[in-house]
Amino acid sequence: MNIAALIFALLGSGLSLFQPVIPVIGLSFADFLSIPDSDLNSTAVKVFFVAVIAVVCGICAMLRKGKNYCVIGLSICAALYILSFFRMKSPAVDVKNLPFDPAKLASSLWMKTVFVWACCYIAAAVCAFFDKTPEPYASSATVNATPSASNIPPAFTSSTIHSPSAAQKTFEPVLGVETPALIKRGKIFLSDDDFAEAERYFEQALRQDPENSQAYLGKLMAELRLHNADELSNVPSPLSEQKLFRRALEFANDEEKSTIQKYLADNTEHLEQIRLEQERKRELDALEEKYREAVDAKQFGEENRSTFTLEHAAKLFEQLGDYKDSRTLAEESKMSAQNATTEKKYNDAVYNKNYGEANHNIEYLKRAADMFDELGGYKNSKILAYNTRKQIAIELERAKEQAAEQAATVKGMIFILGFVLLAVIILVSINR
Fold first, then answer.
1. Does 144 or 84 have the greater pLDDT score?
2. Could you tell me if residue 65 is left (phi over 0), alpha (psi between -120 and 50 degrees) or otherwise beta?
3. Exposed, middle or buried: residue 166 (CB in 10 Å: 0-12, 13-18, 19+)?
């Protein structure tokens, strides 16, 4: 039990620097575990529940910064520490088998935790004391649907467009002020960037006159964080989807209705422009992607002398039309493809010439000569064509000489065979 108390004390003291809620729970459990079994239903249980209450009050003090919550939380926490301290001064610790006294070490660490907790509650009390915000009260007004956050341009980021929660808002009433004055003051607050105060004044105006069109419009501007009604046209979501805007249009008189309908028309036009701009941007992005693909294909084709890749790049540039320098690059790609084809034919002709000379193959030499003739003035094709045909003539003469030598050899072989045959016949005749 006492080892567990020490562990909880260490955990509470260490985590108290980062999260003040955990040490109280840890120390309460440590104190709870250090009490003998016979006292489990008495002081320890009471101290544990006091700890839970202190934690709840402490959280309320820090989240709400209410003076009453903070004072109660600080008082209960102090009482908890006093009770826990006396309990830990004389715990039932069996130290016979331990080289140290866990209760003393836990008590030392507990004091550090007390200091951290006290500082946190004192800071909360100071914040609550200097907080001039009046105590809130529940408002019956509910929050309207928020504008869509999709496709919001940079001018309307989350820092500029207010997105109220679906929960009910709270407003302090503004008493003793006529509705027109409330609306006028609300518009002043809008121009001063005090949107929370502006919304409070417009809400009070609606309580006094639930059918006031200007109050609905003002509250909408406060929620959207707009400074004046002219900015309604630039809202990045349809005004017709705003409940407050529909209310304003519903309760507007003829003159106000004309102005509000103009806001709606301008907003519709603005959203259409945004749609067209986004569509144009998508088209430009697609063109740029195809342009980069064509440029990469052209570069790869030129580096590897690939006719197919260069022709593909030329087709892509032609599809891009007048985008950037696509027409110029298309012509360059075609020229590069043609040069690659010519270069390939030249290399094939050189190969055929070299192979024909090395193997005395007249067919390869003739093929090479024809290819050099087709290349015309490309590089040294004319000279190679002449040399190839000259080599063909040499190979033909050599072939004739070889044929003559072969014919003479055949005649000699025939003469020898005939002489041998005659000698055989003579010998056979003599033996008879």
1. 84
2. left
3. exposed
DSSP 158: T
Q: Is the pLDDT confidence value at 273 over 80?
A: yes
In tens, the pLDDT along 141-155 reads 333 333 333 333 333
For the full predicted model, state whether its pTM sits above 0.90.
no
Domains of the chain from N-terminus onward: 2-130 (no CATH), 173-252 (1.25.40.10)
CB count within 10 Å of CB 318 equals 16
Retrieve residue 376's tokens. 């015309």
- Residue 190: pLDDT band with limits 50, 70, 90: very high
| 346, 381 contact by CB (below 8 A) | yes
Instruction: Output the DSSP codes for 348-398.
Output: HHHHHHHHHHHHT-HHHHHHHHHHHHHHTTSTTHHHHHHHHHHHHHHHHHH
- How many angstroms separate the Cα of 189 from the Cα of each of 51, 134, 227, 311, 415? 45, 18, 9, 66, 131
Residue type, 277: E
